[in-house]
Design brief:
Number of strands: 6
Largest sheet: 6 strands, antiparallel
Structural class: alpha+beta
Distance between the termini: 13 Å
Shape: globular
Number of helices: 4
Strand content: 15-25%
Radius of gyration: 15 Å
Order of helices and strands: EEHEHEHEEH
């Protein structure tokens, strides 16, 4: 199911991204299956993963040290990668589009819905950056078998 989250609890403050600025897809597939699909979908586009941030593990590992008892995610990873072709197109249109690179797709399982895995990415401004959003949408959909 395609939807944009409006839940304030999921708002991201880094980079000015809020929950309504994301496109997400929910699936009953396991976290590991979605990650496997994501890695393959990225490779299918001829791209290379630059970095995998194990955000869920980090937040859980540091939870007590920062004085929290809130479990945010059962699992959560963020995949970072870039496309030379798409990046060149959007940066030729406006070199300041560099601020958006690399591109990220996240996969998470929340404690409130452990049977659901969510894959998603931030939306981008109108104009040339919509090419990046379209690319990420294709990768995310491919990862969970929607394409």
């Amino acid at each position: 199911m395609n939807h944009i989250f409006f839940a304030a609890a999921l708002a991201l403050t880094a980079g000015g991204v809020s929950a309504q600025d994301m496109i997400t897809y929910d699936t009953g597939q396991s976290f590991d299956d979605v990650i496997f699909g994501l890695e393959n979908a990225i490779l299918d586009e001829g791209l290379v993963v630059d970095h995998i941030s194990h955000t869920g593990e980090m937040l859980e590992r540091t939870r007590e040290a920062v004085g929290s008892d809130v479990v945010l995610f059962e699992q959560a990873d963020i995949y970072s990668f870039c496309s030379a072709k798409v990046s060149r197109e959007v940066m030729e249109a406006d070199p300041m589009n560099i601020v958006f690179c690399p591109y990220h797709i996240f996969v998470l399982v929340s404690p409130e819905a452990p049977e659901t895995t969510t894959i998603g990415f931030r939306t981008f401004p109108d104009g040339p950056m919509k090419a990046v959003q379209d690319m990420l949408d294709g990768i995310a959909r491919n990862a969970i078998g929607l394409d």
